Amino acid sequence: MRKFFQDIKADIKFKTAGPGQKLAEPPRERAPKEKPKAATPKSRQGPTDEAQMAAAAALARLEQKPKPWLPSSQDAIKSQVKKELLAEAAASERGLSTDHKSPVSAVEEETAGLSVSGVYFICPLTGATVRKDQKEAHIKEAILLHSSRDPVAASIMEIHTFNRDREKVKLGVETIAKYLDNIHLHPEEEKYRKIKLQNKVFQERINCLEGTHEFFQAVGFEKEMLPVPGQETTEEYYVLKEEVLTKLEDLKDYKEQLLSSEPVKAQLDRQICVFKPSPQAAQFELPHDFYNLTAEELKREQRLRTEAVEKASMLRTKAMREREEQREMRKYNYTLLRVRFPDGYILQGTFYAREPVSVLYRFVREALKDDWMPFELLAPGGLKLTEENLAFNECGLVPSALLTFAWDAAVMADIKASGEEQTGSPLKPELLSAVQILS
Known about the structure:
Elements: H1 2-15, H2 49-63, H3 73-91, H4 97-100, H5 103-106, E1 120-122, E2 129-131, H6 135-146, H7 151-162, H8 166-185, E3 194-196, H9 200-206, H10 212-219, E4 221-227, E5 234-240, H11 248-260, E6 267-268, E7 273-275, H12 295-308, H13 318-329, E8 334-340, E9 346-352, H14 357-365, E10 375-378, E11 400-407, H15 409-417, H16 429-432
Parallel strand pairs: 8-11
Antiparallel strand pairs: 1-2, 1-6, 3-5, 4-5, 7-9, 8-9, 10-11
Helix pairs in contact: 1-2, 2-15, 3-6, 6-7, 7-10, 8-11
């Protein structure tokens, strides 16, 4: 079988040489040793043009090399945080015990009978898998734990992660950068080394953001009560320490880190599973995490659906139908997708409802033993998923769906014509070694 695929790839390389390139000679097959009284082997027909085109596309994907990755400043911060917090997380296992439990064992009783126990995320700082409702608290705790080791980096992550209004964050960060620029460009000017906390700009743009005070103190400012000129009262200021003036380049680096950083975001855990063939593959029981509704709203929604049956025959305008479709699409944040393979095995993963179909194709390809071979995914009803830029909720694949995997028809026709047979499951052995029974 593998030799047959190698023949296809060799033929493609021979027939698709670019302009000006010398065509390589096709590989020569060794003549089989003669055996007495053996039947003359049937000559195999060459791959069809369709198969060659399909395999050429697969070969191009295989030979594409990703561009070299250059770590950003925040990537360096995250790498450092992860190393330091792994030890801290292990030491404080009691405090984070629910975060470090495996998804199934932590909620085994309350999720009995469900297709998946919930929605989980991977913390980029600690590497821990945490439940959806614990995600923000875990990330916040991880950042605060890091403040004792690198207060500047921790405060920058606080500013970008703990404040949801991105426009306010952008305005506040730019204002802080302006303060630091003035000090760097005019270190001899005392007025630039003092920031009045009751200043209107400071109050409106900076004081309202979480983590900004920690940043000022981390980079070398300290609070002081200074007299107001011409008055007997005093006001609170941030004043830059004298010793910081000898490290102005550090101040410039802090400013660049502040401007270039992004919020710390947990990555959705796909919770990849492989199940043995089962007649229950199309049956789903999902937890509330998959819905953009509370438990009370879900009950109300079910009641409204029951009432809507009586009104189903009423005439609705196109605008009314479109509004209802949009409302349906927004109900789900996540979707649980299963892909059934020709041998009956089922691959399962969790996705955002608004992710494109291309993500599912990549997810399936990464699970294949021969990931270069072209394949198709069929939605319920047999409709081929060809628009890979469409989101799952736009394709009706929410909050769950069972899809069908099929190899490219032209390639399979060549395999059949050659007398070869595809043996074993197309899934990677490491996935099959953890196969489960779908209950």
